[in-house]
Structures are given as structure tokens and as C-alpha cells.
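Known limitations

C-alpha cells in this collection are predictions and should be treated as such. Users comparing against experimental data should check residue numbering before alignment. To illustrate the layout, the record for Nuclear transport factor 2 family protein is reproduced below. The input appears on top and the generated C-alpha cells appear beneath it.
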Amino acid sequence: MTPQALADRQHIQDLLVRYCHALDERDWPGFHALFTADARLDFRAFGGPAGSAAELADYLAGVLASMRGCQHTISTSRVDLDGDEARVRTAAQVMMVSAGPQGQDHVLFAGLWYRDHLVRSPGGWRIRQRTQEYAWTHNLPPSA
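Generated C-alpha cells:
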């Protein structure tokens, strides 16, 4: 593996981690900085929309505002580099705390895969396309 490929992989991993932190910190400017201007996101696997990064940020802000807490984590990324583009499949786990019927904490878990098409830009690697794939859920409330 070349030094450039190793550096690219590290930058890509950092991009994916920054996505998790942007969501958990509700850092919407940081969220937008992760994507190309023409990025398309598809979150329909969990009942969300498909659309631009701005449209998904609005949707996610609403979802996260209703949560008492959340934590997004990723692991086991498979990165296929091809020059200034990369295809990445990453396992993700999301833990969220919402209010239960009597006001108590209700903790739910979701497992998913992110399928990403990344491109190298003047500002570094960015997500051009992100699709969620359903893997599993645990302890969803009846209304979900």
C-alpha cells in the first residue's frame, strides 16, 4: 500500500468519525462540511427521507431534538479506493434515549450499514452519496 493510500484511508476514517460527532453534538455547520454541494442521502431504510444534505440535516435535527440523548458509533469500514473516489461500507450502531410513557428513559438501539461514495475535493475527502441499510433494531417503542 502506498503512503498516499494510507493517508487517504486515515482521512476517510476521520471524515466518517466527524459525521458521528456532528450528529451527537448537533453541529449542523460541521455536518454540512462533510458533504459535497451536490450530495444525495438516502435514509429511507429507517423511515427517513432521501434528499440533499440540507434536507437531511433538517430531518435529523427534528429527530434528535426529540431525544434526551444519543450516541452514534462506527466500526469495521471497508474502503475501496480508486484515485480521487472511494466506495466505503461501514457498520454503525446508534443508541438513543427518548421519553417513555410515564416520562422514564426509554433506550433504543439500531444497527445499520452506511454505503458511501466519497470524492477527494480541494478541502479533502467529502461524502457525495450516503445510503443507510437496515441491519437490526432493539427496544423500539410501539409507535416506531
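For this record: The chain has one domain: 3-138. Strands lie at 35-42, 50-51, 69-82, 85-99, 105-121, 124-138. Please report discrepancies through the issue tracker.
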